[in-house]
Amino acid sequence: MTPLTRRAALSGLAAGAVLAPFGTAEAQNAGEYTIEEMTQAADAFFGAGASGLAAMMERAFADNGRPVGYIEGTEAAAAIGIGLRYGEGRQFFRRSRNGMRVYWQGPSVGFDSGGNAAKVFTLIYGMTEPRQIFRRFPGVEGAAYFIGGVGLNYQRADGITLAPMRFGVGLRAGANIGYLAYSPRRNILPF
Is the distance from CB of 103 to CB of 120 less than 8 angstroms? Predict the structure, then answer.
C-alpha cells in the first residue's frame, strides 16, 4: 500500500468514526431504528446467540432500510394443506415506549404440513401511526422445522411492510400463501 493510499484509508476511517454518531441521531430524529438498536433488542428478546439472527437482520435492512417500529411476540401455527396461525405481542415505536398490545391470526393454504410454536420479532416499515397495524397483511412463507427452525418473510399492504423473524420449535415443512389479520383484541376466527 502506498503512503497516499494509507493516508486516504486512515482519513476514511476517521471520518466514519466521527460521522457514525450522526447517523444514529439522524435515525432517532426520523423515528427510525438503526440495525445496532434492532439487533440489541432482538438479542434481548430471543436470548443472546440466537443462530442466524444477524444474517436475517442484515437481509431485512438491506431489503427495506430502517424500520420505524417493531413487535415482540409469540405465536403457534399448524397446517395440513390448510393452516392457521395465532399470535400476540407488543408493538413498539420510539414515541410510544410502553408498547401497544397486538394480536394476529390468519389462514393459509399450500403444500404445508405440521405444527410449530415460535417467538416472533417483527420489523415495521412505512407506518406513520401505530394503529395502522390493524388490517390484513398478505404474505408467502416457506418453513422447514425439524425440532427447531428460523425464518424471515415479508407481509405487505398499502405501502406498509412487516418483516417477521421467527425462531421456533416444532415439526413442519412446506410453503404456503395466506394473510395475517392484526387486531387490538384476540379473535377466535382467523378471518
Answer: no
CA distances from 121 to 8, 57, 58, 82 (A): 40, 10, 14, 24
- From CA 92, how far away is CA 162, in angstroms rounded? 13
**Considering the domain 32-183 in this protein, what is its CATH number?**
2.40.128.480
pLDDT tens-digit map of 35-54: 999 999 998 998 865 667 88
Q: Identify the burial level of 47 via C-beta atoms within 10 angstroms of its C-beta, where 0-12 means exposed, 13-18 middle and 19 or more buried.
A: exposed
- What are the sequence ranges of the domains in the chain? 1-30, 32-183
Q: How confident is the model at residue 78 (pLDDT cuts 50, 70, 90)?
A: very high
- How far CA 59 is from CA of 26, 161, 188, in Å, comes to 21, 14, 33
Residue 128 CA to residue 73 CA, distance in Å, equals 21
The four Cα atoms 148, 164, 86, 169 give a dihedral, to 10 degrees, of 10
